[in-house]
Each structure stands twice: as C-alpha cells, then as structure tokens.
Amino acid sequence: MYNYSSSDFQNSPLYIKALEIFVLSRNISQYVRDDLSILKTDGKEDYNIYFSGDIIHQSESLAPEIAKAEQERFSDRKHRHIASVKQLTNRLYKNCRKLEHCNSDGKEYVSILRYELKKFKQLQYVWSLTL
Question: Whole-model pTM?
C-alpha cells in the first residue's frame, strides 16, 4: 500500500487517477459533443449534450477536493472533502451511464471512463480509510 504525507499528495495514486479521469472525460466529452450538437429533425437540441459538460465539470473538481482533504488539519473538514469526492464520483458515474444511451458514435468510449471510475472508487475507498 502506498504511504504518503500531506505535502506529497500529488504523487498519490488517487490524485493521479483523478487527473487521468479529467483528461479522459474532457476528450470523451469533446468527441460526444460533436455528435450531440446537431439539432434534431424537429429543431430541438439533444438534452444529452448537457451531460457531456457535466462530466467535465465534475471530473475537474475531483483533484482539488482530494488536495483539500489531504491538506486539511481538522478531521471534520477533512471528512467533508472526502464526502465531496465521493459525491462527485457518484454523479460522474451516473452521467456516464446517461451518456452511454445517447445517440453518438462516441458512447462506447464512455464505458472506458466508467471502468476508470470503478478503479477510482476502489482507490478512493482505501484513501478515505487512511485519512
């Protein structure tokens, strides 16, 4: 098991995986957004396009929350950040599931992101126990 100090959080597996998830979600969102930005035949936009933006926003917030939890001295504040990471991960996972059912050629790539999120959840569980 990896042991690290608060000042060394950037080398933690969870923090590194959060950055990987951010890059992956940004790339997937860009790919999916191109397909979903086209108006439907009735002139309306595809509501799934908003989920592509949500995955970027949520994945972008993961790493800063991990850093805040690592640097926090007080246990109750630390647990708030841990809960925030868990909530962001759950929302990100749900939005990925919604995107898998959208009308896009890139939806098969979303399953890759969900797989990475599963690995992230395992790391997150161990991380939350060590703080």
Answer: 0.87
